[in-house]
Specification:
The protein is mainly alpha-helical and 98 residues long. The chain is built from 5 helices and no strands. The chain has one domain.
């Protein structure tokens, strides 16, 4: 994984660590967001011999093609914000859990 992917998955892991300790349900990011799809896709593909050799990044590589094919790729901040708001995930990491 590259830097953006590491930041996103690391933030999710830290957030879910607190949720786990507090007995809260873990946050799963939906597959109609590119990070949610990347996590699910890498999890599934890394179980194969070929998938273990693959780099899963937003920047180039095979996953970038997948993002475009699934219409997950956009640089339009307003489109992203509205999509995340519809999923009730806007500012989800700003919630004080402890």
């Amino acid at each position: 994984m590259g830097r953006p992917e590491a930041i996103a998955t690391g933030s999710l892991a830290g957030h879910n660590s607190v949720r786990l300790i507090k007995g809260m349900p873990l946050l799963e990011l939906p597959v109609n967001l590119c990070i949610g799809d990347l996590i699910a896709y890498e999890h599934r593909e890394s179980r194969t011999e070929e998938g273990v050799k693959t780099r899963y990044t937003f920047a180039g590589a095979d996953y970038f093609k997948r993002m475009k094919e699934l219409n997950l790729y956009t640089i339009d901040i307003e489109v992203l914000k509205k999509k995340i708001e519809r999923m009730n995930l806007l500012n989800v990491f700003e919630e004080k859990l402890i």
